[in-house]
Specification:
Order of helices and strands: EEEHEHEHEHEEEEHEH
Number of helices: 6
InterPro entries: ET-Flavoprotein_bsu_CS, ETF_a/b_N, ETF_b, ETF_beta_N, Rossmann-like_a/b/a_fold
Family: Belongs to the ETF beta-subunit/FixA family.
Structural class: alpha/beta
CATH superfamily: HUPs
CATH topology: Rossmann fold
Strand order of the largest sheet: 9-8-7-10-6-1-4-5-11
Subunit structure: Heterodimer of an alpha and a beta subunit.
Strand content: 25-35%
CATH architecture: 3-Layer(aba) Sandwich
Pfam family, one: ETF
CATH class: Alpha Beta
GO molecular function, one term: electron transfer activity
C-alpha cells in the first residue's frame, strides 16, 4: 500500500512575521523557512504506518519554486522513500494544490493521502477537503488518532470537533488531514540527512499535470494585527464584572 503525503515550505514558526512596506504580503527574503508543522505530523504518521508493516511506500510531494527542494529533502531525511517536486514560481492557492494532487493520484495510485489540516502561513484549512471532493474519496479531517486496517481496507479516524471527539470509519482510498495531537514528529538524523541526498525526486510542472495556474483571488492589502492594549489591574471581583459589562461588553 502506498501513502502520499503533501508537505509545504513556510516561514519558520519561530520567526516574527514582517509585512512588506507596500502591504502586498509578508517579507520572505532572507527569512528562515521550514516544513509546515502540520505537514511534519502528516509525514510522521505515514512513516509510522510503513514501519508497522501497514504500508509499503511513503511518497512526499511538495509544490513551489526550487527552494522547496530543501523542504522535500528534509522529508526524505525523516524517512520518506522518494519525493515529487511540482515546480512552479506562481502563487499556488488551495484549489491549485488540490488539482495537482488529484492528477498525481492518477499517476501514483496511492491508497491513502495524508496532509496537515492547514498551513501556518495562510491558515486556509481547505486543501484536504478539496482533494477529497475532486477525487470523490471519503475524508477524515482534524485527525487526533488514526487506526489503519490493511486487511479490511479501511481506516478509523478520531476527529477533534467542537463538541469533543468524533469517530469516523473510512473505506480506502481516503484522505486524512492531521491535527496537532496526532503524534510527535521525529528529527532527521545526520546519517538519514546524508542518505536523503541519494533518494529519487521526480519533477513535474503544473502544465505537465494539466493544471492551469489561474487565480480568482486577489490580495488587496496585508496589515499587521492591532497592538494589544495594556492590561488593567482591578481591586475586586465587582470591579472586574463592571468592566466586563460596561467597557468590554462581553457579559
Amino acid at each position: 500500500m502506498k501513502i502520499m503525503v503533501a508537505i509545504k515550505r513556510v516561514i519558520d514558526y519561530a520567526v516574527k512575521i514582517r509585512v512588506k512596506p507596500d502591504k502586498s504580503g509578508v517579507v520572505t527574503q532572507n527569512v528562515k523557512m521550514s516544513m509546515n508543522p502540520f505537514c511534519e505530523i502528516a509525514l510522521e504518521e505515514a512513516l509510522r504506518m510503513r514501519e508497522s508493516g501497514l504500508a509499503s511506500e511513503v511518497v512526499a510531494v511538495t509544490m513551489g519554486p526550487s527552494q522547496c527542494l530543501d523542504t522535500l529533502r528534509t522529508g526524505l531525511a525523516m524517512g520518506a522513500d522518494r519525493g515529487i517536486h511540482v515546480d512552479s514560481t506562481s502563487a499556488l492557492h488551495p484549489l491549485h494544490v488540490a488539482k495537482i494532487l488529484m492528477n498525481l493520484v492518477q499517476i501514483e495510485k496511492p491508497s491513502l493521502i495524508i496532509l496537515g489540516k492547514q498551513a501556518i502561513d495562510d491558515d486556509c484549512n481547505q486543501t484536504g477537503q478539496m482533494v477529497a471532493g475532486l477525487l470523490n474519496w471519503p475524508q477524515g479531517t482534524f485527525a487526533s488518532k488514526v487506526v489503519l486496517d490493511k486487511e479490511k481496507e479501511e481506516v478509523t479516524v478520531d476527529r477533534e470537533v467542537d463538541d469533543g471527539i468524533e469517530t469516523v470509519q473510512l473505506k480506502l482510498p481516503a484522505v486524512i488531514t492531521t491535527d496537532l495531537r496526532l503524534n510527535q514528529p521525529r528529527y532527521a538524523t545526520l546519517p538519514n540527512i546524508m542518505k536523503a541526498k541519494s533518494k529519487p525526486i521526480k519533477k513535474f510542472t503544473p502544465q505537465e499535470l494539466n493544471v492551469e495556474i489561474k487565480s480568482d483571488l486577489e490580495i488587496v492589502e496585508v496589515t499587521e494585527p492591532p497592538k494589544r492594549k495594556a492590561g488593567v489591574m482591578v481591586s475586586s471581583v465587582d470591579e472586574l464584572i463592571d468592566k466586563l459589562k460596561n467597557e468590554a461588553k462581553v457579559i
